[in-house]
Amino acid sequence: MADLPRPLSLSILLRLPTKRLLVCRCVCKTWRNIISDPQFAKLHFSKAEAFPLVRSLSPTHISRNLYLVEPPEHSSGFDLRDCSYCYGYSSSERHFHMKLETKLKIPLCNVELAMNSEGDVNVSGNSKGGVKRKRCIKLRPKDHKLNLVNSCNGFLCLSEPSRNDPVVVCNPITGEFIYLPVLASADESFSRKFRDCGLGFSPKTNQYKVIRMFDQQEQVNERVRDPITGRESFSPRVAEIHTLGTESWKRIGWAPSSTHGYKLEFPSYLNGALHWLVMDYNISEYIASFNFDKEIFQPIPPPPLGRGMIGREWETMKDIALGALKDRLCICHHDSVSFEIEVWVMKKYGVQKSWTNVFRIDTTTEESRWLHGVYEPISYLRNGSILFFHRLANAVVYYNAKGRFSSLKFLKIRGVKSKYEAIAYTPSFISLNNAVMGDNLATLNVASRRPMKRGRKPRGFNAGKVEKDMDELGKQQKQYLGPSMADLPRPISLSILLRLPTKRLLVCRRVCKTWRNIISDPQFAKLHFSTAEAFPLVRSLSPTHISRNLYLVEPPEHNSGFDLREYCDCYGHSLSGRHFHMKLETKLKIPLRNAELAMNNEGDANVSSNSKGGVKRKRCIKLRPKDHKLNLVNSCNGFLCLSEPSRNDPVVVCNPITGEFINLPIPTQADEKTRRVSDCGLGFSPKTNHYKVIRIFHQQERVYEQVRDPITGRENYSRRVAEIHTLGTDSWKRIGCAPSSMYGYKLEFPSYLNGALHWLLKDYNISEYIASFNFDKEIFQPIPPPPLRRGIISLETMENISLGVLRDMLCICDHDSHVFKINIWVMKNYGVQESWTKVFRIDATTKQSRWLRGVYEPISYLRSGAILFFHRLANAVVYYKAKGRFLKFLKVRGVKSKYEAIAYTPSFISINDAVMGDNLATLNVTSRCAGLKLQGETKALFLREEDEDMDSDFDSSSDLDSSTTD
């Protein structure tokens, strides 16, 4: 969890109960900072609900512990199992238990006296039943613990025990508290007798305020009207208010009172006002409120109770309680005649007609017993249950209307017989420093004895050091730009990385080890390849330069992928010869034909910075013609087959994305004298899960019997022979006769699909001119061709036909030079001639009404709906979109030399994971040494490479001397 970015951690922590958050706050600084953040505190409080806050009322012990009774996750929240005959109770008095796990702390009344008391006693472990007691403090009655008055937005108001004077406002969740201003000696001489107090919040001014009411001993000269009851007297009650953050109290006028001199009961904060119950049966509006915005007292219209009027019996008022349930004012009336509890809520604040009777609860238990008294509403839980507190029963009362037995359940505290109190409390992580206005506010913590005054310099303050630390902190804050991708957990990172193009993935692989491990993972490589598509893989064909650089031309995100803006009159082209450009950004590398000769060549030359225009050239290598670069044969599942340039003998299989390659077994000297390799290719056997390389060569020695060609069916004495090599083995295996054409042409356009390698036979005397080699069966087979334009294929027609693969379907591209059209056929059902479908008929003329003859080799059918070809005569990749009208020829900016392009699907699959065999020697283009795959383990040998990367033909400084190679 600590590795998650801040937004995700915040979202998860917001869903945890308070108990879990208090634990998480102590785990690490990251979580502590999140939970202590003001924004988190506000979001958490907006979703929180009220729960019972329990404290012991033992007359002999003073404790600053409070317990928040929260429902555990996915349950009713309490131990509702029957517990009979436990702790001395009879079997007829069944009860249930609360779990007091979330312990909070509040300050003591005289903390200094408590901490420095000389009367501290440690009770021994042998006292009363052998239960070891905790440390307790002996204090006189006047030093008793503080009273709980009420809660407001997660803050508690605590009052002095003897006179009920409000002295402390605290947040038990954060442990912070502040002292309220004390009375001056002159004020104390009036002998005030405080009656009522409470804490509230003014939404208009965004301030917290405390109100206190006391009986004024001196009589006034004129009669004063009570703001709620309307009675007049010469000795009224006075109200004062204090705004947290200030240093004084302000008198606001007269306060409500009752005829019997009772205190105002059940202080409850709601909607910017504090509400009480006036214990007076002679009035019709017995709910008093104090508005903290206007700072005035106002009556609240009550609900229509049982007999229409509260006035007939005094006992009626004693059985009414006030509270708030789900942000609505609530009245709980216990009818002692019908033994029922009526729960009324005011759905629209201040509107009497909105009072609604939402519950009518039978107070008799399962044993048909009834308990009289006041049921104080605490909370209406999300599971539909409601909580009350019953002082006489010394229990929290639980009722669930959806339960099987809709009866009250009295929740006791396990193992405790002393009385306790419970009030409704909504937990909040809002700090007093952030909630209370003022610069001179002294806030304390229950875990510390020293206050920290806001705006005051702490002891040992060093201005220079603090200023330096603040500067460094400011720099860090400026540099911090939020959570990064590297902070995401592995599954999320994998899902995001799978959506990136190859160019971005090659960059991400070098960012950190985490990303490199994900991208190098075999599972990631398989998932990435399953969603990848083919793109042009471009390489220079300069006759004077040797380069191991390849360029993968990918469409950038959210566009066609190429620079399709028109360029005219550039690099010597006329105005009528408009063309477009490819962006060669993704550079890959393949091995050289003679790597050791290249690296150890003594003729290496560093071209000086003064050569040709003052452009500094990179290091270049002189090589003889026989050391020319390797040929690109074909690709299969992201791997490339490279052949020897002069005889076209396959010598290397590589993955240019990972840079890995393996050398194929070389023939013996005796074999070299009797063969001339003409065709080769790489394929994959799905049945055996092996990669295989096939090579076809002319056997110089004649045979003594005629052999039938597997494709054309002709018989001859001089045959072509095929051999196959399974990657991971050490030898080649001869498999028999190979197909050939009458004119001795090579098999064109090797294309791998569905476990077979396909070629085009240039022979007009046959009806099936598509040859294939099945790597599972290791046999040659013909593929039925599409029905082309005139049914009979001439040699001229064959010269304008090309073979390829588009979206996992075999494709034939036929350029009809008579009508200047390009017909594209795809085989939708592999091997079924009737499934050949003409999907495109493209006008081969350009925007300037020019026509370019030659072969259009299919490369890719992009997801954007565009199709790509390669045209060798035009030395360009051709782009066509179905919605467009003309072909677009994509050149390489600033390069006049010829190049080649083949279809390539990028893959991050490692050769070590794809090729079977334990003695496989794999190499990397960035290293001179091989990593030997021994018994399934790859032991990589790394040698520091001192030479620099070789230059590319596509750089601006590509016109090097004809005798050198980059």
TrEMBL record:
Taxonomy, superkingdom: Eukaryota
Amino acid composition bias (Acidic residues), ranges on this chain: 946-958
Domain F-box intervals: 1-48, 482-527
Stretches assigned to coiled coil: none
Chain positions covered by the region annotation Disordered: 946-966
Name of the protein in its database record: F-box domain-containing protein
